[in-house]
Fold these 3 entries.
Entry 1:
Amino acid sequence: MTRSLHRSLHSLVLASLLALPLSLTAQDSNTIHFDAATKVFRIDAAGTTYAFGVNNVDELQPLFWGRSIAATDSLPAAHTLPEVASFDGPGTVTQGEYKGWGGQLYLEPALKVTFPDGNRDLVLHYVSHHIEGDTLTIVTKDIERDLFVELRYTVDPATGILGRSAIITNKATAPVMIEQAAAATWNLPRGTNYTLNYLTGRWAGEDQLQQQLIRPGETVLQSTRGSTGHQNNPWFAIERGPSTDEDTGDVWFGALAWSGSWRITVEQDQLQQVRVTGGFNPFDFSYKLAPSQSLETPVFYGGYSDHGLGGASRLLHRFELTKILPQSPNPRPVLYNSWEATTFHVDEAGQEALAEKAASIGIERFVMDDGWFGQRKDDHAGLGDWYVNPQKFPHGLKPLIDKVHSLGMDFGLWVEPEMVNPDSDLYRKHPDWVLNFTGRPRTQERNQLVLNLARPDVRDYVFHFLDDLLAHNDIAFLKWDYNRNWTEPGWPAVAPDEQKKVYVAYTRNLYSILHDLRAKYPKLEIESCSGGGGRVDLGIMHYTDEVWPSDNTDPFDRLSIQDGFTYAYTPGVMMAWVTDSPGWANNRTTSVTYRFLSSMQGSLGVGANLNKWTPEDFATAKDLIAAYKGIRETVQHGSLYRLVSPRNGSETSVTESVSLDKKQAALFTFLHSSTMNYPYPRVFLRGLNPNTSYRVTSISGKLATDTPTTATGSYWMSHGLDVELKGDFQAAAFRFDAQ
Ligand code: DGJ
């Protein structure tokens, strides 16, 4: 008898004997087990164990999360902690899987509600559970009221990453107001020696990795802006001990799949217990649940690695590529984008001229950015009017699209569907369609207002104009932009106590439009852009194929933006354009090669004004694009090792990508400025097969003359290699192929 079958039978027998209110395992699971004797749930996958139990007061209490425990080791039953002081009773010091605010809880609740009679006390008790394949569903209920919370746990057997969410259902006869709803609380083993990693930023400066010791109290990561935001990204990673090496040590990490306002709190309590709670942002939030209605939270994914932050991000990348992104990961085509070359001044002849030049260097997709629609001359007008501008494109988009196809490329188009300029036919006709409070100012940002996608008529309008555009034009790719945050987020068309639902309804309608478009146009690919990286999260990535990490295309700044990005997101979706030099961000001059090598660490694009390029620029670009195509599968879908970080003023940075079969590696090395004639620090590869021979080839740049052309993986990893880099803003790249 298999161990899992044995456990299931054991559970069945015990449950019937003890007549516990347990609905038992519907289908045997290799990953999820329930021990009816101890009332312990265990989820084991990919070297990770996650365990919790139903405790002596019928609450769900975490037991363990970390490196896998042997199946033969049984975990003791969950028990509430004793009162520590009259100020710190069991209700607050005992950790919970998903706690309602009520009883004695003084720490961050997962759920907070107000009942119509004024009662705000919510204590959730276990009712039943159900295991099906890799999903565990647990029903909990308030001790007195008919408010049910179903907790879902779905584990990915390949990475051990758990997806957790909650469905809150009102089975009473009166409405309930939800004021705070998290997807999950993640509890870490008790300790004080933790370092929190998180990403902060701003427009043109996204994804800067922050590291700080977790101290008593609470750290809040959030967006209150209606969308994911540039300022914080909904991702965290907690290392045990100080950060020493990228690829060693225990790391617990998580990412929230939500593109609306969100919040993640990281809390160390008075017993030095650390927990992370994340979900809808409770700021300005409420959600009225009528009888028999439900609210489903976003999914909060969490995982564990004993291979440091590097191991954590490799697990997350694999998970995103296989479980989050909408289709099996095709390599991203090398694209050209018109924005930095022509801004709003697009027209048929100008775009066709750029397309010819783009095709000549091996570009596979030509994307026309902003400016093609309505009365769009600059950012003051046109958003909302999605007809082709007849002055710029007198015969519609077809001649340009045909030309692009004749050059062997597919065609992509920029849209910003959720926005409207007050100077537009749409706004003149439907001024009530934007987020607003009646009689109050409507603050413009970039001369635009936000359409209230929560409204069914707005949702239909957006879907139908996109459907029409796609039905009448052969468009392979949409760059979906979103260039401001919310202000005055009112929804006057619904009752005052329903208006704050906008935070949920808007984002759900956004997802449903993306879903319906993809269903109708299965070959369509979409990029999520929000003035750069303002909407990058696992929620939007479920419906999009790539993301635009930053409007800042300075190749040096991009090294740290891309470095931060890859802690949370796969380089496979990280669009990176080569643009002109000196660039607008820093007026810095860099070589074409440096710019290409910076961009080749992700999904390569070109956004330069090709009309200004020299023949030498074209020749270099053509060579490097060809070289990129030879390594892109490895870069986009392989395992990333951040060998040297560009953070904290580092003079050097190095990344290495290794293909899944370990037959190829791509190495990118960068030098900010050499000083005192020092040589470039030796580079030690990682992740190769030690006994396999790899031949090294230069993509650009030189190795020390005594470097062997072929050596084993163990040589490249242990002995390392010396790269010849001197000067300012220099870069070199090499590929290693198994022989
Ligand atoms: C912001 C985007 O991030 C840019 O790449 C470009 O598409 C502009 N919007 C166009 O308005």
Entry 2:
Amino acid sequence: MNLNQQDKLKNGHILPLMESFLSIQGEGYFAGKSSYFLRIGGCDVGCHWCDVKESWDPKIHPLTEVDKIIKEVQKNSVDIVVITGGEPLMWNLDYLCHRLNELNFKIHLETSGAYNLSGKFDWICLSPKKTLKPIKEVQDLANELKVIISNKNDFKWAQLQSKKVKKSCKLFLQPEWSKKQEILPEIVNFVSNNIQWSISLQTHKYMNLP
Ligand code: SF4
């Protein structure tokens, strides 16, 4: 990376874009809504069950001008743009959010919350991970808490995390995809007895969508 690129990356005018695509939000509060996804490369959180491990190394994803990304977004008749990863907060998202906001898109962020916040969002979905814990700034602003459940111990982690977000934050438990057969009955049982929680399923996978 040359000095010019380093500068542009620092001020958020370029980002390592892994992919961008129109799809249906499969998970959480906005499940079923048409959305345009921007998947930003780079993640060092290290979830062993991660289903986008190819996102982890930012060097393999092209540094893409944000203005070019915006032009692609504008070709679609969506109002929601989901910024996901990887871990998008590893990068400066100020300029991307500024441009999307100017164009009146609703900007949603999907994050582990492990990095400082940049950018302004209409909706923050915090999916905390034990391997690199979320910071308070993101917990305070989260609109949605989505905890992945892969074993029985994860329920305790979920309850602990729910105490750190604001009262209005929507609470979701989502089965880890490869464990869903065995863990889903446990989640159903938990949600039946803890009505503040809802179940999130990766419905895009059932629909064979990206
Ligand atoms: Fe994968 Fe997300 Fe975990 Fe990063 S935070 S390792 S992208 S699941």
Entry 3:
Amino acid sequence: MRAVSFAVSIIFMFLIEAPWCLHSQSDNTASGPSPEAVVPSLAAAYEHYFPIGAAVEPQSLNTQGDFLVAQVSSLVAENAMKWDHIHPRRGNDVSSYNFSGADAIVDFARQNGMLIRGHTLVWHNQVPFWVFRGDSGTATRAEVLERMREHISTVLTHFRGKVYCWDVVNEALSDGGGTWRVESPWFKAAGDDENGDGIPDYIVKAFEYARSADPTARLFYNDYGIEAGEKLEKAYSLVKALKEKGLIDGVGIQGHWSIYSPDAETVRNAIKRFASLGVEVQITELDLSVYRWGDSSSLTALQPNLASQQAARYGALFKVFRDEAAVGGDAPSSGHGKLSGVTFWGIADDHTWLDSFPVTGRKDWPLLFDVDHHPKSAFWAVVHW
Ligand code: XIL
């Protein structure tokens, strides 16, 4: 049925030239329609499943603006809402904050009817040193927590009614032994557990401050590598404990994966596991590198066999996402755990953080569109089912 209605809508699009359609000029890796075919909209294809989002910089609005409007229904700031961008200087007056980049993204999203995710309030990276420095030496636990409270309150008040959810705490779990990322400056300043609830105080406080600053925002814990293994268990326990306190609404599985792993059933298991806690689940930073983790070799072009593997993996993942989606009015706010959003970390291969991570200056091709914004095989695998 779905295939038939999709075919009908493609023919219809040819006839009416819907404004959200773009013309594809080339697709050298495609197994999809002919080069001149009309490119459907990802967001429209998934409108009955979940919003499709993309991470953007303020300048992306110039380089990718119309294309983003055509393809996605949600935006997140790739960097512009992080502490070092939004609150670079010590203090709590207007001159300490810089909302310009974030506001440009929010205004653009609102003008185009898009949702906005908030990313991120408390993270060990991209947070200025002054946050942890006192008048003489290291700031006290109380000083750091007060700065965190003031920051969260100011930022959530500024975006209230505009940003529908926040990654309140990002990447607080350890990759190796032990549960917590103990080298984080947040953990060092306020990672103790005064109330004995088993969670470092800075994490609980961040959620409490966010809840009271904007009770309408949906609050997320966000991390990478939490789809499997011990880190899944650690994240499950953290989310469970925060849920029991009524402080959390969702968990973000970042989704910085590769064309080799994880497999789609691993991701399904993780979504189900978190959803069983009654929280919503989102894939928040999706991209599939063409390199294996730990491989430092460089390619000069996306080879056809890798493009096909990427298409197959994206297709299998989106099948899982559709299966696990909050479909049919089962809205995330209803309290039923389900997949409620998928956000790519970028939109096209002309702009991806993987060009400088984990190997600086190495080209990667992790997204659904190529450097010229034309659909790759992976795009067709995601919109044709
Ligand atoms: C990355 C950005 O994409 C880069 O531009 C920046 O230099 C570093 O941060 N996990 C996260 C994101 O939660 O905020 C990171 O974004 C990627 C990993």
